[in-house]
Automatic annotation (TrEMBL):
Keyword annotations of the record: Signal
Name under which the protein is recorded: DUF3828 domain-containing protein
Signal peptide: 1-19
Organism annotation: Rhizobium alvei
Amino acid sequence: MRPFLALFLALAFVNPAAAADASAPAKELLEIMVGSASDAGGDSDYFSEDRLNRLFSDDFAKLYRAAWKKQESDENGGYLLGYDPITMAQDGCPIKDLSIETLDDQGGWLPVIARFKAFYCFSDDNKDKVEIRQFIMVPKGDGWVIDDIQSVVNNRVEGSVKANLEELSK
């Protein structure tokens, strides 16, 4: 009986962030991406105030707000990034073949990998091209939040939303 009690107590005091679904914030954004890329369109505000507070790290949200403030002071108006932060393009096809995978802990952060086809309707050259996005998840409170969205090409990070926000906030 004691081994079961020890196991129960160990599970009862597991770090809540470790027990939470680390991919949940990324999945919410990916649902928005799928909806906004569909023929019907949909909600495409990845960075609403509610989502900034719930789905993103404090550091990411701070950079986003600083970049937006800088853009407003430059009177540029319009979209902050000029592209969809997940497809990393201005235009695309309805998303297909979406898959999501949470990888192992990388020493305080978790990568959530999304694979999808977004440009197959443009040409035969793109019909089998798979886009890879890496969501950098960090613990916050009792769950996980997004600290960056990165484009991965040939196993290398080729683009970072957070780096773009840093540049825009200067």
